[in-house]
User: Which sequence fits this backbone?
């Protein structure tokens, strides 16, 4: 290798080094640009995140508002239902009371009509008979009077051979061929 070759060779090396330096500068510039872009991207990302957060909060609020609205509507419906039920109950009760009043009036009228027609209810069979067909007899306790039809009188009561009153069969004692009431029998014993 002569001197010229040596110098030329050195020149090549220097050129190569300069080229490499330029390349490094270029790369550093690109790196800086990239870093800036990353920063921008991060800011943008943060903004997006904030926006997303806001949207989520808004959604939550909206849901709460909706829920409150739904609950409110439900309450209103329930109140309306309760009110109509109360009205219905009131009306039903009023109707029942009126019907009962009417029945009472009808019963009163019927009783009055029966009195006027001089009908009387038999204490035994509960049928109505003209007063002439009803007889006063002595009841089970021998004190109270029963008003009975002739048929019931013959079936459930017997005429005492002493006092000639009709007594309930449970108070009639047979002595020989005589039938007397327990009161007459007691008096006989004394
Ligand atoms: Zn009777
Ligand atoms: Zn008697």
Assistant:
């Amino acid at each position: 290798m002569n001197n010229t070759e040596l110098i030329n060779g050195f020149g090549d090396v220097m050129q190569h080094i300069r080229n490499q330096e330029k390349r490094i500068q270029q790369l550093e510039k690109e790196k800086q640009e990239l870093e800036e872009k990353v920063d921008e991207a991060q800011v943008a990302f943060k903004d997006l995140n904030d926006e997303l957060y806001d949207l989520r909060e808004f959604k939550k609020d909206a849901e709460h508002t909706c829920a409150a609205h739904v609950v409110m509507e439900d309450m209103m419906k329930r109140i309306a239902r309760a009110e109509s039920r109360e009205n219905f109950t009131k009306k039903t009760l009023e109707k029942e009371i009126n019907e009962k009043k009417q029945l009472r009036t009808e019963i009163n009228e019927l009783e009055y009509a029966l009195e006027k027609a001089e009908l009387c209810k038999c204490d035994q069979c509960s049928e109505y008979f003209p007063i002439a067909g009803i007889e006063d007899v002595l009841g089970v306790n021998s004190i109270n009077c029963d008003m009975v039809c002739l048929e019931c009188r013959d079936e459930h009561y017997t005429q005492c051979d002493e006092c000639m009153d009709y007594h309930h069969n449970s108070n009639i004692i047979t002595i020989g061929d005589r039938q007397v009431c327990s009161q007459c029998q007691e008096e006989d014993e004394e």
Q: What stands out?
A: Strands lie at 119-121, 128-130, 134-138, 145-149, 157-159, 166-168, 172-175, 178-181. Helices lie at 3-116, 150-156, 182-189. Residues 122, 124-125, 127, 148-149, 151-152 surround zinc ion (ligand 1) (CB under 6 Å).
